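Example 9 (inverse folding). The structure is encoded as follows.
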């Protein structure tokens, strides 16, 4: 049995960039920052940010592009994928990305994309978008999105 699953909660660091492949498939890329805090041996609080590259495809890419903005709090779930290529200097380069499968927008209902609200969200206010649901050929209507 194998498992390739990444789950993170963080803030979008830049507005998603939506492009289309030559065959017309929408693809969105953005990054999410997560923070880690600890106290070092001298008693000083330390903070470290990790930046995660996210790639979304098809309807999920369009949804991300439309509703996520820099600063948005988001839960993303997907699989890790690492690409390898030769740089201009001839050295191998690597990029690890999370290929998005599920997403939950965690900003409060009615808040702007760049706002952060410390209030806890109720489950009925949290829209859950899954890749297999987003792949349906049905048009997504704004009035059907629960926020």
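The amino acid assigned to each position is listed next.
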């Amino acid at each position: 049995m194998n498992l390739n699953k990444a789950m993170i909660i963080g803030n979008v660091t830049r507005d998603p960039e939506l492009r289309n492949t030559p065959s017309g498939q929408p693809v969105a890329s953005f990054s999410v920052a997560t923070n880690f805090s600890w106290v070092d041996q001298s008693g000083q609080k330390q903070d470290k940010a990790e930046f995660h590259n996210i790639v979304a495809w098809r309807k999920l890419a369009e949804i991300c592009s439309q509703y996520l903005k820099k600063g948005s709090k988001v839960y993303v779930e997907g699989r890790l994928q690492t690409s390898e290529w030769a740089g201009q200097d001839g050295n191998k380069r690597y990029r690890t990305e999370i290929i998005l499968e599920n997403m939950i927008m965690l900003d409060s209902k009615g808040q702007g994309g760049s706002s952060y609200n410390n209030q806890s969200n109720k489950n009925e206010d949290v829209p859950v978008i899954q890749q297999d649901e987003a792949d349906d050929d049905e048009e997504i209507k704004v009035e059907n999105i629960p926020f």
